[in-house]
Predict the 3D structure of the following.
Amino acid sequence: MIHLKYSTFTLKYIEVLFQQAIFIYILTVTLSSFADFEKILIFTLIGAILHLGNHFYIRKKISFIFTVLSIPMGILFGYLIINGLFLVTNTIHLGFYLCFVTYLRRTQSNSKS
């Protein structure tokens, strides 16, 4: 989980940029021979499978939430990236991640009290 500090936000931003670069590469190079619908479908499947790896590192409930949320986000990101809206995708990705993780941290803090 992340701390609400400037240095952590900066690190998370760099991580999201790196992920977005991978997304762009997957959609424009690796899956270039597929039709757009197939690209988005395969991209979403890859993202969901990768999010399943969170089961090894974070609580199962949170990991399940990330995995389920990766499906509509994968469809949205795939569509936006294919249409050249990289900055929009990056903004949504970072904003959603920071808001969701902040929410999870607050609910964890409240449940411990």
User: Anything to note?
Assistant: Helices lie at 6-30, 36-52, 60-82, 86-112.
